[in-house]
Amino acid sequence: MKSRSMLGRSVPGTSLIHRLDARVKFIGAIILMVVMLSARDIRILGFFLLWTVSIMIISQIKIRLIMKSVRPLMFIIIFAMLLHLFTVEGHVLLQLGILKISREGLISGGLTALRLVLMVINTSMFLTLTTTPLAIADALESLLSPLRLLRFPVHEFAMMMSIALRFVPTLLDEADKIMKAQSSRGADYDTGGPLRRIRGLVSILVPLFISSFRRADDLAIAMEARCYRGGTSRTRLHASKLSAIDIVFSFLLLGLLLLVFAVEPLLPPLVWI
Amino acid sequence: MIHFNDVSFTYGAAEGQLPIRAVNHVSFHIKKGSHVALLGRNGSGKSTIARLINGLLVPDEGSVLVDGMDTTDSLDIFEIRRICGMVFQNPDNQLIGATVADDIAFGPCNLELPIDEVNRRVDEALQKAGLSDLRDRAPHHLSGGQKQKLAIASILAMEPECIILDEATSMLDPMSRRSVMELILELKEKSDISIVQITHHMEEAVLADYIYVISDGRISLEGTPAEVFDQFERVHAEGLSVPTHIEIARRIADRTGMPYRPEEIFSFDGAVSFVRGVVASLSPLKGSTDDQDSSAVPFSCEPIVTESRSFGDGSQEIDRESVIEISNLSFSYTSDTGEPVKALDDISLSVSKGEILGILGHTGSGKSTLIQHINGIIPSKKGTVVVLGRDLSDRKTVRDIRRHVGLLFQYPEDQLFEETVALDIAFAPKQLNRTPEQVERAVLGAAKRLGVDAILHRSPFELSGGQRRRVAIAGVLAAEPDIIMMDEPAAGLDPSGRDELFADLMTLVDEGATLLIVSHDMETMARLCDRILILNNGNVAGCGTPREMTSSAEFLKSVSLDIPSSKQFLNCFVDLFPTLDTNCYTAKEAADALVKAIYRR
Q1: Three-state DSSP class for B201?
Q2: Whether B573 and B542 share a structural domain
Q3: Total domains present in chain B
């Protein structure tokens, strides 16, 4: 009912980003994470900012929804920024007691924050926002399929993942309901000694576990009733072949990797840093 | 197409638990294209029978054949499950896919169909179930009714010959229930699909071609709906109810000795015209002079509650102490899609001590949001909520007021967590720091009231659904609240389980408690409540006595509620008996009123 985190909640659409193969997006998200964190040069980061904005425009997803995925990590981002702000030595701009803010700290803190924000937006853009959990699970299954040679139950693992993702919102609603119900019975989660609080937690977790087991049981029966028998011979719904946009996108990713690891070291340093 | 030959099934036989014989030497045959209803109390073995049909369970004795295939044959089992698709009770626990289309594709993918065929079937099923617009929606963004339609669509994609509905409508509100049933009937009409329906709702059972009543794992009564419901006393004894119009007509036939045929009174119109026939033959002097006499004394059939409690006539309310005062309360939240939703819009309400207030309205009308404001679970932001003379805008007051206001959520059995029933019921009084003696007394009192005092030492998780419900309710009552709010306390119970539960709950009022009951069921609420509040889209659509609230069928239709069926029946006779009091909420009362009116003439 209420909006919580964007975890496991994809936004339907038909944009280029939505149409990319989930496997490409999955690997892409990892590559983007690496390049965003590795980039040092402000010009490269500026280019990434441009890249991110273009991706956001292409995806046609409302900016408010994108920002929602950044919010849970805001605390870490601000913390990292402050850490840089106060610890990096250099030309002092402002002194507050023992705290010193240097020009270098300011730049470094700002760049860190930018880097983190870009990273979060890119990964949520490619993974959570434009890709359904099922497609991610299928992609994982496909990417992990070599492990089958080692007797790893790849299909079952992927099915497990996708069901877990499917039930995240349901369980969040359930937890909310149980918490309200126990509060109505006098449970108090904010005050009282640690013992009382732990007891309070028990009154939420036990019913939640039990109902999850019951759901799992029901779901297993429902799956069986629909002829599920595990195994690998099921028709793969999202067994898509790589299309032209996937190949173009893969080259773009390669370009980004080269930009950070081959071009950046060659760039002449900026004078004012 | 489905043959049960002397089938028995016992639970727990293998695991060394106490064996429970759920199905006991049952034989029947379901023909292709027929619509069969399985009725019976909670725990009578209906669901077990359903699971025996598609081989989710296999019989200990006897055999189950589907299209000539034995369910114990492991080679045929997947074909049997394809032929007999099954829709389960809980909409949330049977959807597997992350989107509507993915969920429909799950079955065909298991059948190892080529991808083009899977996609064709998904499109076809979407279109048949009327879900084409929701193709890419995530299941948790659907309403309960839409989820059940999706479950049906997912089965259609496997091209079954039979759909088994295992209480598939029991967690839905009346509107969604009807639209799911319409879909089922449409499917039955268009294709030659068989329907096996397990239900507690008699209005669904009457749609079947044939009914089996199951009790203690045996078929105790069977026949066409007209034949089964004709034996209304037997049906009541089985814990079920009879469509009101049939019972009224039957009672009038018995009382007046007029001959009837079961088929004749089976439909609502048939029952009305039968009773009109009775009136015509018994009062040949229709429209004669004693009209005057009859108009002087109205034929009254006061609802039971008003007889004994004489409350809610409007006149006596003045000297009652008010316990809940809500003024100009509004509440809105942001939905998943980012749009603000107005759940409550400028609600004002006052509830007196000892009153029974029914809160009715369709899903999303704001009923649950309203009661959650009254014990401060949702803090009031716009408007004021004053409970027992204290304003809930102060957080400290909220904590204090909760011990006086009990709130029972829907499906409260989900909140049980302790090792024994006694400990679970004791949770609330312990939280209030009562002395051990007080706690014990409260636990015993609450357990006795709900009839669970004999199972106090058992684990709540080994009880039946109905017993768990009662334990959970006792857990709220043990705090000895002055105001008790209940959200659909009888949801999913069989008709007699529902009546017994309400009878037990009504004893609270004799001890001075105030009750607020949230429900979709106008018939039961009209019978039990002093006053009824009708919400519609977060607004108060009406508030008054059951008599006032049920007087206009158009009004009730506009807020998606049903007119109580006994009243609807009596309304067909006001032209013959202008002074007939139509405020009857049980078939027996309605029949009494009509018989009285007939003989007075």
Answers
A1: coil
A2: no
A3: 3
